[in-house]
Records
---
Amino acid sequence: MSNPYVPVIARIERIIEETPDVKTFHLVTAAGKPFAPRPGQLAMLSLLPVGEGMFSVSGQGEAHLEFAIKKVGQLTTALHEAEVGQAVGIRGPYGNGFPVEELQGKDLVFIGGGIGLAPLRSLINYCLAHRPDYGELLIIYGARTPADLVFKEELFRHWPQAPGTAVHVTVDAGDAGWQGPVGLVPALLEQLNPRPQGKVAITCGPPVMIKFVLQALERMGYRDDQVITTLERRMKCGLGKCGRCNLGSKYVCLDGPVFTLGQLKALPAEY
Amino acid sequence: MAVAKVSERWAAMSLVPKEEVGLLVDGLARHYQVIGPKQKGKAFVLEKLASGQELRLDYQTSILPPRKALIRPRETMFSFHDNQVETVQDAGPQVLFGLHPCDVHALTLLDQVFSLEYEDPYYAARRQQTYVVALNCTTVGENCFCYLMGTGPTLRDGYDLLLTDLGNEYLVEVGSDAGEELLRHLSLRPAPRVRVVEKEKRLDQVRRQFRQQMEVTEMREVLAGSYNHPAWRELAKDCLGCGNCTMVCPTCFCFQVKDQLELDLNHGQRVREWDSCLLWDYSLVALGHNFRPQLETRLKQRLYHKLYYYEDQIGTPGCVGCGRCVTNCPAGIHPLEVVARLKGE
């Protein structure tokens, strides 16, 4: 009997230092890419014997998966100390991912904060790889300081040059070299004021940012089915057994992590 | 799975004199590990029976529920060294002897939880080798409310063998092929069909001892509109958040997972332990954010999952009315009283 709790052993192929506390890890197995997730899906990563945790897949190549991981606790600190070639257990993919078919033909507004750009990035790059299927892409992103911005290469080079794509980056506090806007993401969103017609807004970031982004979107006239977000839980299994990610009658690992605002409003307000 | 629906195929019934019921355990123990009720201090526990003499079928309930024989309070999932993983399976044939109908129902619920979407291989391996010898209830405990939940005091299916106390002897009924297999290890005398009448008479007497407070459907209606009811705040003042209710619950299944390293810093195990949604760190995520920081929301999570979400997930309420949470709650919180309060009684 195959055991869904047992990870496959992958190796770190490459490490990219995104910010002082975020690194992107490229993982490969002996067979190549561990699996082919849809944008927004999740994977359990293990460092034996530190532990296991659920992470959003932030991207993928022909033969590898990418995970942008912020150093926040025991497991992520150990991952940050890992070197190229080190073994990492992986199992997945888990969760529903973004509804890429339903989003076809829509203009998409991405609103990210901090490490919350990681799941959005998988969808942004998916849309760009399937460019004719999607409308205009508007990317609004912010972090505490310029040094805390993740995926800088894409934010400042690739995405602004991509067809039909606009990128707006803000920071809470600038530094000597920063020439872009300074301020919070929800304020920048309201300033840009993208009209809701034909659009879907997709947001991920710290809970306090999401709270104000949702309020701003509502004021701007976005309906609950035009707003999509992803939820975070400290999951222990990914299989709908451990109970940790139970929210109402849903399990975030099976039914999420991607929910429309309409779906979330039907659940207890524990997010 | 060792259990099956009862049909006419297994119409045969047997009788065991009360003083010989321990011999059943001894007969089965030659082939299986037999887990049944035995006394521990003033209470009873479900544990491996060294001999039939330890069996106490007059028990009202056990401290921990039978799920501990299928998903252990703490168990190793796999061991590892140098990034080599070796899975651990310790399942062997076992008989759960003397389970009350509520606890048998709980097992059938867990069967669904642990096979929905993904099959849990540890649970499945043990369950496939588990035989259930159930015992109809002929007395009612002070906290029992199985009759309301539709899970007792008598059992219709989910067992391999079913015992009913007829006074001086037990009626033994077969509920599955596996039950017939168990009987082959025992020499019992056949029961005349008329003893079924005796059985039904006794079980009717038990049913009459229950006070019917409300219907399950009404419970669901009350909860549907009560998530923001002010009574929750008052209830949360009583609740200590200790998690006792979840540990003794026969249908709770949450677990957490930990890695532990041996002193050679190379070998280790990934273990899982029973967890509780009542505990503060259950809903903690990265950077210290907590989705249920208030005890009130954690208490609601527990009761809504039992009495409401469970039904959405697998089609039946997650409470079997065994009463263990009531017995073991330091604050005396009773699920039915909670619903009554939400209803405004």
---
Amino acid sequence: MRVRGEIVPGRAGSSLSVTKPVDPPVFDVGWLYRTYAAKVGRWAARLGGPSIEAEDVVQEVFLVAKRRLITFRPDGNGKITTWLFRATERIVRAARRKQRWRRFVGMPDDDGALGGDTAGPIPGEELERRQEIARVYRVLDRLPERQRRVLILFELDGLSTQEIATLTGARVGTVRVWLYRARAAFLEHHDQLMARDGKSEDDRR
Amino acid sequence: MTAKLLPEPERWSERAAAGGPSAEDAIGGSLRRIKAATEPSAATAARWAQHAMEAGPRPPAATRVWSIAIVAAILGGASVVAASVAWRAVVHHAPAPGSESDPSKASRQHRAKMARQEAAPAGVEAPAPAAVEAPVPAAVETPATAAIETPPAAALLAPPTETPPAAMATPQPAFVAPLSVTPKSPRPAPRMPASAASVTPVFEPAPLPAGEASRAATPTAPDEALLMARAFRRLRNEGDARGALAALDERERRFGAGAFETEAALARAEALVLLGRGDQALPILLGIRDPHAGLTPEVRVTRAELLARAKRCDEAVGDFELVLATGAPSATRERALYGRASCRLQGAAPDRARADLEQYLVDYPDGRFAPVVRAALNRLPGP
């Protein structure tokens, strides 16, 4: 089975506009790993947030891909990307559910990709960066799943609404509606969180 | 009509570059830092790819959980079954093998009953020993019928002369000869002699209903009962002893002893006798030990007749006497009385044979064997 070169319309610099190798000699797993590991890892880290280990997600995604590769039939541009994205999204969602469950039962969170190595002392700037990331994801986690996904893909992954529509299988208009709502909800929750944090800060003082 | 799309909004992460004081600007700054933090380097991506390639086929967590749950359920179920079996073994004493309360036997008998119901016409309740009672009159060449059809020892049955008949002098009784009838070719449909009408078996197999017959004859039907029904139908309805034997062979090949071991043995014996292979039928009948489903009076008297034919009168007399001692049907008793007289003549016990013959004429003055008995009595020396 041969795979046509993946030519996906997109903005320069976006993750989907990267030129893909054209006509690989064989559609093998090694080629798939080398070509898409960075993309899948990026999706995993951004969709999962600081509590998800991106490398674990990458491995899970490629295990699934390896198992199902034989039945995969690319029939259009961007199809394999869509396929990998949906697998990544499912695995990240499962990992987040697991994290929520761990929090619910009082178990400590795993250190995710954004958590870094906590073995040594954390410099002040790094600590501030982590707190900032955690705050953004606290707000994102309050959004409905579709809005959260669209906002992350738009803001963090730099995809256009057209590219998001391709990835998620939704219409462009729908994606834009989700995006507008997500942004509004994000601002509202962010303000609430900031206000609460500020109040707490005042209380501490 | 085209729907008016919302314009694509400006990215917050790009507004941060402007460095404005708004909340969007602050959020944009955070997003930009997250974006930078989550952008894997080429080395990291290569490491991920390498690790992914090296990763073994680890099942997903959900699969592992389900696997554990299924294994636990199987083990739990097996434990429950084992405990249940142990409990039954302890609480309920296992019945002695062969006893009526033996569950396996009860199950076998139940299945036998179901098979008989299968073979019987709808609405007619087949009696339990149906498969047993039928073989006797249809298959066995009784001494009486044989004697009437072919009086082989005519000289022995001739009126007694001055000197005692040779048969009497030597232990060559008049009633032995009819038992040694040459094998007969299988008849298309075994018919009872007119004189033996009273020996009509309790279970007279009738043609099965069309649906039932077709179902029973289905060659792919894996049911042992269906094979039995097929054997009986060929034997009784079609007179096809060879076809019945084929069906019985198939049943034995598929099920071994199976649930109808006794019934199959009786059917096989019947078919063999019908084919004139009484010598092969005798060991089968001798192997039947079940007094309830197997050794009915009719089967016992048939076995005794075959034993007498095989010149094993010592064994045959026991069966004849047992039949006469127990309240056997009249026709069966008639055969037993006649057979015992024959054996007693073989055993050079003319007095006891005379008693049986006279008793026969008392009980059955118009019986099947009455002419032969009278002739024999005339040839016997006086008491």
---
Amino acid sequence: MTTEMGNKLARLIPEATLSDKLDPKLDSSSQRRIGDQLRAMYDELMQQPVPDRFKDLLEQLEKSNRSRADETGKGQAEGPQ
Amino acid sequence: MTPEPELREALLAAVPSLRAFAISLSGQVDRADDLVQDTLLRALSNLHRFERGTNLNAWLFTILRNLFHSEYRKRRREVEDPDGSYAGRLKVQPEQGSRLDFEDFRSALAKLPSDQREALLLVGASGFSYEEAAHICGCAVGTIKSRVNRARFRLASLLNVDDVDDLGPDSMTRAALQG
């Protein structure tokens, strides 16, 4: 059903507007609408709070590194350039 | 591999965009969070390979993307995992109480081949240039452009973006589309 739709749409695009590689191209308003929806969906994901597991993970790693550096002495933490 | 406070902040700051990419790519929040965690661990143990002053986000996205694909290949060998199952999994909403309804968009996105989905997400949502996206995916710039075009075109037809009111310059076109 949807592929049929796609095929009909594809036939409507004049050949002259196809890119060199014959990729389908959308008219600019459809392209804008797709882009807007994509960003809206994505923004919502971006706005979700960062799960604590990531903060905890990075803090833990920092702590364990610091204590290891303390044990093995200074200089180990930085490492050679 | 000491995560200095500055670096830790930078990694934490990258988490929301890594998660958004991973969720959109995999369609599963749990799996996405595991991917992000693996990405952070991988990044920290490979910090010596990161060139300071270059784009940290692009580097992290490269790691995540490679992890996703190696895991996907592994799974594929274990279980037959045709594209259709992704659409089913995607019905799981990332968070309860989603304000807006992106269900249609999500399921259309899920129907794209993964290389097209990935290219579109990098360029159209994550804010990378075509060049950066090509670098992240390890392919030519022209390949990324082509995948993005195909992805947009396919989404438009899946979502019937064209049938609203502003595709056709004439009503015959629209009538043909609706017929």
